[in-house]
Amino acid sequence: MARKYTATIATPHGPRKCFEARVEHNGRKPLVGRFGGIPLRRDKKTVINDRRLAPVNTKRKEFVTRLLAGRCESCGRIDEVEVHHVAKLADLGRPGDRPPWADLMAARHRKTLVICGSCHATIHGKRPASAFTE
Description:
By secondary structure, the chain is of the alpha+beta class. Helix content is 21%, strand content 24%.
């Protein structure tokens, strides 16, 4: 295969060996595919002209912004925050039967609530309940 497709082509740097496949067409130029035939020596006079990339302006997701704020959405305290999550908003219950933290999540139409550790413990029943604010 190598013997069949080996070719020598003229380049600005002199003749170079490459692999070349030709498909002849009647009355038209042949289709030519080449692999190789390029010089591999270093050109010390090369000038690199990189184009400037357009600045990327990607907005943060709202959830990430809420997390980075570091503020409890329940009591407003600035502290280490945790995230309380429910699988679906329907799991929160009906408007008269649910706890204040569930009312807060339902009012915001969010399945997540970024809260401090003490409020999170209160939600899971590990500490006495405190007043949740909106």
